[in-house]
From TrEMBL:
Chain segments carrying region Disordered: 1-26
One Gene Ontology term from the biological process aspect of the record: phenylacetate catabolic process
Superkingdom in the source lineage: Bacteria
InterPro entries: Aromatic_CoA_ox/epox, Ferritin-like, Ferritin-like_SF, PaaA, PaaA_PaaC
Gene3D superfamilies, per the entry: 1.20.1260.10
Protein name: 1,2-phenylacetyl-CoA epoxidase subunit A
Protein species of origin: Nesterenkonia natronophila
């Protein structure tokens, strides 16, 4: 897909005088566009101080901030199980994982800030419900096995989607994803180990694991986004080298990966149409419930309201900490300036 070149005009109306500043601004934009186009064609990185089309900037702010929001909201389903994990080891491992997710959110908010959107603005967009996050986190984690299914399927889908983002054309985003993906690999392994233990335990434990997989499978496949024909943003992101593969291509990769893994677990995937297609060299799978997906995205999922309410309460309750930290930082800055004046 070719990149649409923006119209570069010195003035917005022919009745307006063409000033020297307007000419220089148009020339700068033209040079910037040519450099940006060259970076895309040579598959190189765009850095924060480089000129970039406004739509490229907006697309990145939307994608990176939504990714950050998903990491923060995604702490809730598993954080709810820290105190109920079946052993001290399980508690400590799960606590470390939830802490990692908080760190991922911070990396990504930092990357988004380099695009000119403040962190407070992104926080406020999530607080008010204006911003979106991954729909998978609006489903409940009903049992301990769901924690395993989240690790194996949800984090597995995240890795499939995010490893190509390590080569995203925007430098800060791609570099942040390198560390995120390394830690997500640990998370997927943690989920796999939980499910393996349960599926090789008692019949009751195996059924618990199977039920969790049945609940998580469909929403996990929907994490890659709508089908390509219904995802106009995906095509533009690929033209800009932000994304490397389409939603459907990534979803197919994930299905091909998890089928043998499910066999190793001794569990089945809840799809009667799932079978190997020799001609395509891939597994065929049934259509997903996209009506449910869009309903959840619009705020009508099982726990949309609860997730946001919990986030708002946590943010409100932590306001005094942020205020105290800001006051301390201001006091330290004043003291530093005072010392500098005295020594001058």
């Amino acid at each position: 897909m070719s990149i649409k070149k923006p119209e570069l005009r010195a003035v917005d109306s022919p009745n307006q005088p063409i000033t020297q500043d307007a000419h220089e601004a148009a020339d700068d934009a033209r040079v910037g566009w040519e450099h940006f186009q060259q970076l895309m064609e040579e598959d190189k990185r765009v850095e924060p101080r480089d000129w970039m089309p406004e739509q490229y900037r907006k697309t990145l702010v939307r994608q990176v901030s939504q990714h950050a929001h998903s990491e923060i909201i995604g702490m809730q389903p598993e954080g709810n199980w820290i105190s109920r994990a079946p052993s001290l080891k399980r508690k400590s491992v799960l606590m470390a994982k939830v802490q990692d997710e908080a760190g991922h959110g911070l990396y990504l908010y930092s990357a988004a800030e380099t695009l000119g959107t403040s962190r407070d603005e992104m926080y406020q967009q999530l607080y008010t419900g204006k911003a979106k996050y991954s729909s998978i986190f609006n489903y409940p984690a009903r049992t301990w096995a769901d924690v395993g299914a989240i690790g194996w399927l949800v984090d597995g889908a995240a890795i499939t989607n995010q490893v190509p983002l390590c080569r995203a054309s925007y430098g800060p985003y791609g570099r942040a994803m390198v560390r995120v993906c390394k830690e997500e690999s640990f998370h997927q392994r943690q989920g796999w180990e939980i499910l393996y233990t349960l599926s090789h335990g008692t019949e009751e434990q195996k059924q618990m694991a199977q039920d969790a997989v049945d609940r998580t499978y469909g929403p996990a496949l929907q994490m890659f986004g709508p089908p390509d024909g219904d995802s106009p943003n995906s095509q533009q992101s690929m033209a800009w080298n932000i994304k490397r593969f389409s939603n459907d291509d990534l979803r197919q990769r994930f299905v091909d990966m998890i089928v043998p893994q499910a066999e190793a677990l001794g569990l089945t995937l809840p799809d009667p149409e799932l079978k190997w297609n020799e001609e395509r060299g891939h597994y065929d799978y049934a259509d997903l419930d996209w009506d449910e997906f869009f309903s959840v995205v619009k705020g009508n999922g099982p726990l949309n309201h609860q997730r946001l309410a919990h986030y708002r309460a946590a943010r409100d309750n932590g306001a005094w900490v942020r205020e105290a930290a800001a006051a301390y930082a201001a006091k330290q800055a004043d003291a530093t300036r005072g010392s500098a004046l005295l020594s001058a």
